[in-house]
């Protein structure tokens, strides 16, 4: 946990919304009191980027969930960072674990996408992931450092990049990563940045955790030394996302208990 790095939460809607569902999410996110010390973003399907941008409060940024490695051309089905920016959105998620595993995007392709996105000025949430096979076969470090090396080689401006680590084995599997497991992975990634990029980048780059983050586990995880926020899937469709954005804000019930006693001590 560092005051140098602003807490960051992205709620990734994946392919789970339509206009009615976006309207509902916009309603509860707009009505909530969101911690101004958190940078809040939603990850939106490409066909709804403008729709979501026009409806969300300005404080909530919008990210596309993918983009291609060139600005335009004959690439049916793809969108470019320029198009995302032109839709009024500032962020793109690249290398999401579902792109890596389901759509078989290679480190090389993701690196090319990141390199192109960096040239356009769009801000990037660059993802890495550990699968259950990686973990069981003891190759987690090799896989994570390999993904990080490939991403880092394409990044010239780290101030416009957030790194997200997903424990895929803990995403909607019924198994949760412990706080110690999350801290260990994030610390390794920060150490890699320190050893291979620079102290400045290691100190200033936000590293997020993903994998079944919810209103039940976000407060404990939010206190971890090397954790700077969350990439959230399922809970982003529910009012839970508000609790996750507010995960570092003092708990209202403890404040009430605090003010209950004239001496200011907790009741
Ligand atoms: P989850 O998804 O929070 O549902 O595990 C995270 C993600 O894959 O973006």
Order of helices and strands: EHEHEHEHHEHHEHHEHEHH
What compounds sit in this structure? 2-phosphoglycolic acid
Radius of gyration, taken over Cα atoms and rounded to an integer in Å: 19 Å
How is the CATH topology named? Answer: TIM Barrel
Please give the domain count. 1
Classified by CATH, the class is Alpha Beta
* Relative strand content: 15-25%
Report the CATH architecture. Alpha-Beta Barrel
* Major sheet details: 8 strands, parallel, barrel
Structural class estimated from helices and strands: alpha/beta
* Order of strands, widest sheet: 1-2-3-4-5-6-7-8
Average predicted local confidence, pLDDT = 94
Tally of helical runs: 12
Overall 3D form = globular
Percent helix, as a range, is 40-55%
Catalytic activity: D-glyceraldehyde 3-phosphate = dihydroxyacetone phosphate
InterPro entries: Aldolase_TIM, TIM_sf, Triosephosphate_isomerase
GO molecular function: triose-phosphate isomerase activity
Subunit structure: Homodimer.
3D structure, described in words:
There is one protein chain. The longest helix has 18 residues. Strands 1-2-3-4-5-6-7-8 form an 8-stranded parallel β-barrel, surrounded by 4 helices. The two termini are 28 Å apart. It has one domain: TIM Barrel (Alpha-Beta Barrel). The model has no long low-confidence stretch (mean pLDDT 94). It contains 12 helices and 8 strands. Helix 10 links the parallel strand 7 and strand 8. The radius of gyration is 19 Å and the shape is globular. With 267 residues, the protein is α/β, with parallel strands linked by helices. Helix 5 packs parallel to helix 7 and helix 7 packs across helix 8. It binds 2-phosphoglycolic acid.
